[in-house]
Design goal:
Elements lengths: L15 H5 L12 H10 L3 E6 L4 H11 L2 H10 L1 E6 L4 H15 L6 E5 L5 E5 L13 H14 L1 H15 L17 H15 L17 H13 L2 H16 L13 E2 L7 E2 L2 E2 H18 L2 H17 L10 E2 L2 E3 L5 E3 L7 H8 L18 H4 L10 H7 L26 H15 L7 E2 L2 E2 H18 L2 H17 L10 E3 L1 E2 L6 H18 L2 H18 L32 H16 L2 H13 L1 H6 L5 H11 L3 E6 L6 H9 L6 E6 L4 H6 L14 E6 L2 E2 L6 H7 L2
Parallel strand pairs: 1-2, 15-16
Antiparallel strand pairs: 1-3, 3-4, 5-6, 7-8, 8-11, 9-10, 12-13, 13-14, 15-17, 17-18
């Protein structure tokens, strides 16, 4: 006999988010034809709720309303209720988010939509409490009023539907696919974006604007390229300041590593505690690029800490990467609280550290002025004393988060003579924390976010010379290319136990191509470049808008919804259009297929109006513009690794060279030669490896030693 009082149709789904709602008293349907057919047959509006498994306010709305029998009775009687996981169905989420933003001026999750049986919306909002309070209408009231409008004012409802669809169907502002590409002054837009970032920069704590603060790592990709392009030192300094400030804050898990979704305050102290795979992938890349640009090992260390977290906690046995970890977790009484897993009281710290091995005691030698209570009595000032750790990490009896403490070092870096002590304490605290009830882990594997982590790990392997990272990237890429394709070879979007039949979206293709490109330039295995070209060609075939330019969110062979959006805004992740524009330029310069760079220009042109109106909202698209506007540099290394190619490739991996691509071809590399016939023209020097640096279709004389190559590289 089931322990659950209620079970609905979501029990048949694989999405962790949908399964979380499978025992609600609400008669939930997944997004499927049966739900729409029933709504039509019974002439009922559809109540659509969109969220994701690690969403804090989704959990709140479930506890308050969807687990409530009174709400369920009203919903079941007057609506057909549908639940959607936004991470599985970004197409549905994108369309109805645009509706929500058009109607309310804001968006977020949980998203609440009321629509006709043919999926056309007439009401939208986000979180609603069961009963109205603090200016928010209650869900019960929303349900009663929208149901009554459907019954008694159908003509008004349909007028509203028409107005909404007209508002959200306006195409992106552009100069039109037939316009002259050269008419767009991208340099002017690039400089305008930089000025916007400079104007909103927080010089004290880093980041842009005020609370809440989001990582948006692709901003740092832009600033680093702007610095490289112009020599503007402030662009580099903004990047360094923000990345280091985030590492010191509570948005970074000081005990177990990894970054949370965003900070609710301007100091990066109090995060929204959920950890997303994509944030950590993009932040690892940003720190690695900053390390290349500055040679400051702090940024390499941050990337290594992120990878420690991901490889330890977010990697499946098959090699794919899980999606997210929740903000909420249970305390020892079974009550769910946001941040419970990550926060501490002084007594908890003392209990763990007081019994710590005192092998590092230094008889007061390391007594620190940061520990005022113990300075006067150095006999008690052992580096292993828990009070010392609490001072360094802002642990107080008052607390900094709802009576508990988020460890942080916002007020100052850890002194060098405390580093060994801090690491010893961190390990002890981590081991103790592992015994707590862990936050829920969303263990579905998304092709798109895996592409980003593959790219990050490949860059990490290349820049840090760590084969562990490269191997993890290769294993994940092989997993996606093997398990996340259907019988026709079409890329799929989601894997959990088995692949879902959901066909991959533009983001999936774009981010996987990115990951494969990084893997190629780390391993120089031609199979990865071959797969990148194949996926890129499929992307252009299935997603291109031949009339206006750019890429649609979902493919021509996928379910056709009420709209087919094209997204260019670089939000929590870069858009598929901006990522593809960058990929196309790199592929063109790697392969000599110059028509691919023309495709990149067409994407830029399609969204040029958007970039002009809000440059800072399209920073990764502008990275592609910078790449196009900058003198290209291609490096071809010919020869065997053991005959000097390894030393030449090592030089290429050093330094920050965002406008350079590289190829490696040895004598037996038939796959590469079949893809890129011109590589056969590059030969060794008396059997030794040789490097050719090509700029603007002209190549230098070959060099065979590392110092000579270093001198001619841009």
């Amino acid at each position: 006999m089931s322990e659950h009082k209620y079970t609905n149709k979501l029990i048949q789904e694989k999405s962790p988010y949908l399964l979380q709602h499978a025992h609600n008293p609400v008669d939930w349907y997944p997004w499927e034809p049966e739900a729409f057919a029933r709504a039509t047959a019974e002439d009922k509006p559809i109540f659509l709720s969109i969220g994701y498994s690690t969403c804090h306010w989704c959990h709140v709305m479930e506890r308050e309303s969807f687990e409530d029998e009174e709400v369920a009775q009203l919903l079941n009687a007057k609506f057909i209720a549908i639940k959607v996981d936004r991470e599985e169905r970004p197409d549905i989420d994108s369309i109805y988010m645009s509706v929500c933003q058009a109607l309310t001026g804001h968006g977020g999750w949980p998203m609440t939509i009321v629509m006709t049986p043919d999926r056309k919306p007439f009401f939208a909002g986000t979180y609603f409490p069961k009963r109205g309070h603090a200016g928010l209408p209650g869900l019960m009231t929303v349900l009663e009023k929208t149901s009554e409008a459907w019954k008694t004012n159908r003509s008004d409802v349909m007028d509203t539907v028409g107005s909404i669809l007209e508002a959200v169907s306006i195409p992106p502002e552009s100069i039109g696919a037939a316009g002259a590409i050269d008419a767009v002054d991208y340099k002017k837009i690039i400089h305008a974006a930089y000025e916007q970032y400079k104007g909103s920069f927080d010089s004290i704590y880093g980041g842009f604007g005020t609370a809440p603060k989001f990582p948006s790592p692709h901003i740092f990709f832009f600033l680093l390229r702007y610095w490289k392009l112009t020599g503007e030192d402030a662009a580099l300094k903004m990047t360094e300041k923000t990345l280091l400030s985030m590492r010191r804050g509570g948005i970074f898990d000081q005990i177990g590593y990894g970054f949370s979704r965003y900070s609710t305050d301007y100091r990066w102290l109090v995060p929204h505690f959920e950890k997303m795979l994509y944030d950590n992938a993009l932040l690892a890349m940003a720190n690695l690029e900053t390390y290349q640009a500055t040679a400051n090992g702090s940024f390499a260390k941050i990337a290594e800490e992120i990878f420690t977290y991901v490889l330890r906690d977010m990697t499946s046995p098959e090699g794919g990467f899980y999606s997210a970890e929740d903000a909420d977790s249970e305390d020892d009484k079974g009550e769910k609280e946001e941040g419970q897993f990550y926060t501490w009281t002084p007594d908890e710290i003392k209990q763990v550290l007081s019994g710590t091995d005192a092998g590092l005691v230094a008889d007061g030698v390391n007594c620190s002025p940061m520990h005022p209570g113990l300075v006067a009595d150095c006999v008690n000032c052992s580096p292993m004393h828990p009070e010392r750790f609490m001072v360094l990490f802002d642990i107080t009896s008052k607390g900094n988060f709802e009576g508990r403490n988020i460890p942080n070092t916002i007020h100052g870096s850890i002194p060098g003579n405390d580093l060994e002590f801090v690491e010893h304490c961190r390990i002890k605290l981590f081991e103790a924390r592992e015994k707590r009830i862990h936050p829920f882990k969303d263990d579905k594997i998304l092709t798109s976010w895996n592409g980003l982590m593959i790219a990050a790990l490949a860059i990490g392997g290349r820049v840090l010379g760590n084969s562990l990272y490269t191997s993890a990237a290769e294993k994940a890429a092989d997993f996606v290319l093997d398990r996340l394709v259907n019988e026709k070879g079409r890329l799929l979007a989601v894997y959990r136990d088995t692949a879902s039949p959901l066909k991959a979206y533009a983001d999936d293709y774009a981010f996987m191509v990115w990951g494969l490109l990084e893997l190629y330039e780390t391993t120089y295995k031609p199979e990865y470049l071959q797969s990148a070209l194949k996926l890129n060609d499929e992307l252009l075939e299935l997603f291109s808008d031949g009339k206006e330019g750019g890429l649609y969110l979902y493919g021509s062979d996928s379910e056709q919804l009420i709209l087919r959006p094209r997204e260019a805004y670089d939000g929590a992740t870069p858009s598929a259009n901006s990522t593809t524009a960058n990929n196309l330029v790199r592929l063109a310069r790697l392969t000599g297929r110059h028509e691919l760079e023309d495709k990149a220009r067409q994407i830029l042109q399609a969204f040029s109006g958007n970039m002009k109106n809000y440059p800072a909202g399209h920073c990764h698209m502008l990275n592609a513009a910078i790449l196009i506007e900058t003198e290209s540099s291609e490096v071809i290394v010919a020869g065997e690794l053991e005959r000097g190619a390894d030393k030449l490739l090592k030089v290429i991996r050093q330094g920050f060279r965002p406008f350079t691509v590289s190829l490696h071809c040895n004598q037996d590399n038939e796959i590469l030669k079949s893809m890129i016939p011109f590589v056969s023209n590059y030969s060794t020097i008396e059997g030794n490896a040789a490097a050719y640096v090509c700029k603007n279709f002209t190549c230098s004389y070959p060099v065979s030693d590392a110092d000579s190559l270093r001198e001619i590289l841009p």
